[in-house]
Amino acid sequence: MTRHTTRLMRLGVAATATALVLAGCGRGDGDGGAGEPAEATAVDEGAASGTIEVWAMGTEGEALGDFAQAFMDEHPDITVNVTAVPWDAAHDKIATAIAGGQTPDVSMIGTTWMGEFAATGALDPTPDLIDSSSFFEGAWETTNVGGTNYGVPWYVETRVLYYRTDLMPEAPTDWDGLTAAAQGAMDAGATYGINLQPGQTGAWQTFMPFAWQAGAEIVNEDATEFTFDTPEFVEALAKYQSFFTEGLAPTDLPQGSLEPDFMAGKIGSFVSGPWHVGILRDLDEAGMANVALAPLPAGAEEASFIGGANLAVFTDSEVRDAAWTFVEWLSQPETQVAWYGEVNDLPSVASAWDDPAIADDEYLGVFGEQLQTAVAPPSIPTWEEVASVIDTELERLCKSGADPQEVATAIQQQASSIGTGL
Questions:
Q1: Among 19, 182, 249, 337, which residue's CB has the most CB atoms within a 10 Å radius?
Q2: Bridge partners of 312?
Q3: Are 115 and 380 in contact (CB under 8 A)?
Q4: How does 198-230 read in b/e, with b if 16+ C-beta sit within 10 Å?
Q5: Is residue 241 located within the same domain as residue 272?
Q6: 3-class DSSP state for residue 222?
């Protein structure tokens, strides 16, 4: 979902929060909650006026208020008020606002929260004002809940392979090549050939690309049942585990040591998102001469994880036309390029990547290429609970050597007990 560890979901509270919003939102049948396709109504841009209350998190919340002045200059009848919300409080704040009927007009929402909040009927279906074809397909799918789209992708991130060219002369392109490259890096002097998350919070985001690359599906076609216990998913688990059992990846890397160890040549490669470019540059600008990025090596298919954040309009908004007009403005390619210049958020609109400010960057081009095949987890109300199960089971897989088939079965049983919420 996010660019920093502090932006990971607050796992373990999702079930409680979902129960809160479902019990307290007060919306009846026909509100367009998850599992009941809803129809969007048109937006009258010409009549848009009023004051829009917007919630945004982290860096985005700090920068959006000033950035929105350009929108207000174009739309003098609309005022935008932005409230910055800390990421660690955002999920519960939104859930409580829905339960109490005190939502803002627009809010930034983590991609993996969409299913949960759409299930309450609190999110307004995306109107035709928004051009869905302009977004990366994987990003657009993060707004699809039960066949209805809610909101728009605001910014995106995906995961690629960071590797040291002095330890891996060429980027691996497939699973066998990744194993060989990791071993080659160790032969060249690295302590470990690759770093992968061995379970715990957020590990699913590193593992799931392997599952998608193997051709695994997470849910059935209508997202009512989980499909973890398949040969493709087991194959992915076995491949992921092999990096640990063969000693190519550490199971207990001390927190904070990845970046310095990588820049020192002790780790040959790792999987991460765009934020790590800046972290590595700040740590050792000269050492970046030995750092390259590449799309994730493919299995039967090419795939990576797509995350980021979406913008949603709430059904209780009394300035709906103005709210959607603002969201549409933030989705324009030129606005997305300008926003990237402010906070380095990668555009969700594909055409924005043609701008020289992004296209000419040697590292960003790799992320743009990976976004073409990046996949989002299913937008279901219970995803955070299920993700927590995957994180826990991955730790057994990587640190305790649990059998991949047994792990797949355990994930399937626990996920089925939780249900998809649709």
A1: 182
A2: 107
A3: yes
A4: bbebbbbbbbbbbbbbbbbebbeeebeebbbbb
A5: yes
A6: coil
| Contact residues for 29 (Cβ-Cβ < 8 A; gap 6+) | 36
Q: Which residue has the tokens 């051709």?
A: 215
Both 270 and 184 in one domain: the answer is yes
217: left (phi over 0), alpha (psi -120 to 50) or beta: beta
Number of domains forming the structure of the chain: 2
Q: Indicate if 310 and 326 belong to the same structural domain.
A: yes
pLDDT in tens, 333-371: 999 999 999 998 999 999 999 999 898 888 988 998 999
Q: For residue 347, is it within any domain?
A: yes
Q: How far apart are the first and last CA of the chain?
A: 21
Q: Exposed/middle/buried for 361, CB within 10 Å: 0-12, 13-18, 19+?
A: middle
For residue 47, give both structure tokens.
């009549």
> Tokens in use for 237?
């688990």
* Phi and psi, residue 245, nearest 5°: -70, -30
The answer to whether residues 142 and 41 belong to one domain is yes
Q: What is the DSSP letter of 135?
A: B
User: Is residue 316 within 8 Å of 103, Cβ to Cβ?
Assistant: yes
* Token code pair at residue 357: 């400010």
Say what the pTM is.
0.83
pLDDT at 127: 93
- Give the Cβ contact number of residue 37 at 10 Å: 11
Q: What pLDDT digit, counting tens, does each position of 59-83 carry? A: 999 999 999 999 999 999 999 999 9
